Structure to design on (390 residues):
């Protein structure tokens, strides 16, 4: 019992072992490294984050690129269908029964081809009758003129009466009036005879046929609609964001599934500024020469419109602030390393590059990264990435 008590007392009397010095050294080194890491992190944030640099009033880190001259080539695509270049409406000019309609919708016709033939029998009969009336009235007028001359001569010799002369003059006037009416009716019949056949006035395609055999026509009734297709239009649907890129006269290449091994050349002829509210597209009409009439209305295809801006000043599109508004601007780093907010005029946008038509000079450096929190006259410093590609 005494022995165990003595052992316990000895344990209580043993002092704790001192902490080794190496542990303190390790602890201090770790704290130093952590502090150094935090310090470097803060420095990195200040040197790479414009917002953090603003907080400590340090120079804002930015990436810049020089303004350069280059050629921008843009290809604007759109699918669509072929339309006739123009349409011609043919009308009937007379009242008559239709004997024959020689074409159907989709037929290719040449100028002068017969389209519709009308019944001319009544017109021909009227023509023949009035020819006889004209001839008879001419003979009658000749005889009455001689008779009037005779009565006039007798009256001058006091061998005839004035009443006979007056009656002869009235009869002659009536004959001349009858001749005039017969001549007018004859001319009308001759004109109607010219319109018993409706012929094509162009080389084209039949778009609409509005009359059939045994129906009756009336003056100014539309009987046929023809499309001019020696030149056709490709109505290409282009997305609305390209409405400022498409211009009249731009060249285009058009391909059609119906002609897989062939590319047709054309140019932008007309632009419809109205945007479809459902598809958000507008229509660009591309003019294509079609001498062989192979391209017909309704044929589907795909158009590639080419726009080229040669030797223009251009900057990366990310450098432009408010590119869609009328206050487009960029930050330019001047010779003192300060930010200069510059208003610019913009042109074509191609492959993330934007043409600048005013406000910048070649060689000036524009900010492409870091402009979000940048302000006018801020001190800047360019990162190492700014020199890449210069």
């Amino acid at each position: 019992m005494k022995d165990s008590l003595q052992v316990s007392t000895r344990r209580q009397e043993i002092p704790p072992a001192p902490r080794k010095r190496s542990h303190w050294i390790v602890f201090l080194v770790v704290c130093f490294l952590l502090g150094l890491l935090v310090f470097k992190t803060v420095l990195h944030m200040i040197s790479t984050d414009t917002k953090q640099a603003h907080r400590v009033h340090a120079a804002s880190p930015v990436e810049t690129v020089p303004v350069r001259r280059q050629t921008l080539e843009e290809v604007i695509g759109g699918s669509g269908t072929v339309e006739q270049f123009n349409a011609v409406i043919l009308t009937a000019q007379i009242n008559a029964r239709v004997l024959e309609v020689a074409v159907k919708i989709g037929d290719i016709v040449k100028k002068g081809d017969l389209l519709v033939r009308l019944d001319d029998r009544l017109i021909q009969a009227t023509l023949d009758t009035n020819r006889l009336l004209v001839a008879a009235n001419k003979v009658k007028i000749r005889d009455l003129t001689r008779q009037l001359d005779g009565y006039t001569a007798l009256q001058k010799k006091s061998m005839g009466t004035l009443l006979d002369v007056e009656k002869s003059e009235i009869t002659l006037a009536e004959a001349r009036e009858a001749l005039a009416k017969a001549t007018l009716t004859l001319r009308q019949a001759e004109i109607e005879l010219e319109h018993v056949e409706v012929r094509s006035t162009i080389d084209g395609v039949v778009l609409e046929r509005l009359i059939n055999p045994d129906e009756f026509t009336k003056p100014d009734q539309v009987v046929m609609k023809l499309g001019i297709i020696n030149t056709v239009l490709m109505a290409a649907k282009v997305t609305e964001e390209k409405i400022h890129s498409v211009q009249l006269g731009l060249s285009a290449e058009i391909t059609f599934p119906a002609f897989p091994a062939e590319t047709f050349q054309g140019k932008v002829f007309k632009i419809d500024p109205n945007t479809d509210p459902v598809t958000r597209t507008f229509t660009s009409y591309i003019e294509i020469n079609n001498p062989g009439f192979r391209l017909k209305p309704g044929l589907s295809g795909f158009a590639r419109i080419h726009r080229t801006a040669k030797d223009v000043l251009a900057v990366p599109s990310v450098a432009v602030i408010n590119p869609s508004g009328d206050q487009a601007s960029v930050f330019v780093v001047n010779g003192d390393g300060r930010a200069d907010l510059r208003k610019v005029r913009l042109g074509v946008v191609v492959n993330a590059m934007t043409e600048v038509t005013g406000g910048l000079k070649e060689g000036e450096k524009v900010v492409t990264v870091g402009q979000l929190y940048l302000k006018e006259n801020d001190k800047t410093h360019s990162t190492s990435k700014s020199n890449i590609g210069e």
